[in-house]
Design goal:
Ubiquitin-like (UB roll), elongated, 23% helix, alpha+beta, 366 residues, four-stranded antiparallel beta sheet, 7 helices, Alpha-Beta Plaits
Length: 366
């Protein structure tokens, strides 16, 4: 950029050239634009001197263009912070594009993700530069973890994706020489007996208690002799689960005092942050750093205190039954068939006793 200014001044070209020359001010591109005015250019070095000369000789002038460095600085001084900010963000973005800031693990069922993360942390810190990660070396270390058969590693953006292939569980070895009784894990009414070997001591419709014998490891031979044999088979039964809750006219609940304290730590950090309050509620969430493209863990502690309040069971009844029924459902073993559910309620000394029942059918042998 050429640092210069263009003026239109009162006077002829000869007059303007003379007064500038006398005062050692260099001008160029002098043109008479009208009988009364002329136009000339001056470098940034002489702009201030040229204006002083015209003022001294009482010559009116107008600056019609100013591309001097001083004028550029004056116009853009307030924008420099923005420019610097844009430059810094660009530099940081380029730097972080070359970093790994997050680890995502998939394919784990029996192998602990914490064990995999520990192996990664022993090899390198996260965040770290992509160039500092040797995927082949990291692959070897992860495969050395017990239970890992193979692993696939890929870096996309700022994330390293780790897909684990676990070893197959060894086939269960069955000892057919073992003579062990099959007993019930529940109080139940038998609905079906599937016998493979041994002798069933229960039939459909029988009531059994937890621990009762279902199939004994014996078999009566055609000649009447009894032979020890492995007991195998499944017994299904109808089981009733229940959950009892007592609700008083007044309850003690925790309420927030309004005080809170928030901490930010690395997403994969194992640092233990202790609450500054004796009684508190804790909330955790993932956020993106406002300064760098990296995920952080946000931990907030809210101070609480105990407060007594009146409790009207009738107003909350519907929600309570839904909540407690859901809690009881979570206790139902996997694979069980849900038959029906119902509730009973009674009042004892102003307290409401709620019982949730669930009827299910499942395999009752251990």
């Amino acid at each position: 950029m050429i640092s210069k200014a263009i003026y239109e001044a009162e006077g002829t070209t000869a007059y303007i050239v003379n007064i500038m020359s006398i005062n050692n001010v260099q001008i160029y591109d002098v043109v008479q634009v009208s009988p009364e005015t002329c136009r000339f250019s001056v470098t940034g070095k002489y702009t201030a001197a040229a204006e002083k000369v015209m003022a001294r000789y009482d010559k009116k002038f107008t600056k019609i263009k100013d591309s001097t460095f001083e004028n550029f600085m004056k116009k853009n001084i307030t924008r420099f912070g923005l420019y610097i900010g844009i430059i810094l963000v660009t530099v940081l973005a380029i730097a972080w594009s070359r970093m790994v800031t997050e680890v995502r693990i998939s394919g784990t069922e029996t192998v602990s993700e914490q064990e995999i993360m520990k192996t990664i942390e022993e090899y390198t810190d996260v965040p770290t530069a992509k160039k500092d990660i040797d995927l082949d070396e990291l692959e070897k270390r992860i495969i050395d973890i017990k239970g890992v058969s193979n692993v696939s590693l890929e870096i996309k953006g700022n994330i390293i994706f780790i897909d684990i292939l676990e070893e197959l569980n060894p086939s269960e070895i069955v000892d057919y020489n073992e003579k062990k009784e099959i007993t019930s894990k529940y109080d139940a009414v038998v609905t079906k007996v599937v016998l493979y070997s041994g002798t069933a001591v229960v039939k459909e419709g029988d009531t059994v208690l937890k621990g009762d014998l279902l199939i004994e490891p014996k078999k009566v031979m055609p000649d009447g002799t009894v032979t020890d044999i492995r007991a195998t088979g499944d017994v299904y039964g109808r089981v009733w689960l229940s959950k009892e809750c007592v609700f008083t006219p007044t309850i003690i609940e925790s309420v927030r005092t309004g005080k809170s304290k928030t901490y930010l730590i690395g997403l994969n950090s194992d640092a233990e942050i202790k609450s500054p309050y004796k009684n508190y509620e804790k909330e955790e969430s993932e956020i993106i750093s406002p300064f760098f493209p990296i995920k952080l863990k946000k931990i907030t502690f809210y101070e609480t205190k105990e407060k007594e309040r009146e409790f009207d069971y009738s107003e909350e009844r519907e929600n309570i039954i839904k909540e407690k029924t859901k809690e009881l459902e979570s206790e139902i073993p996997e694979g069980a068939e849900k038959i029906r559910t119902w509730t009973s309620e009674k009042t004892v000394d102003k307290n409401v006793v709620l019982v949730i029942y669930y009827e299910i059918v499942l395999k009752i042998n251990g």
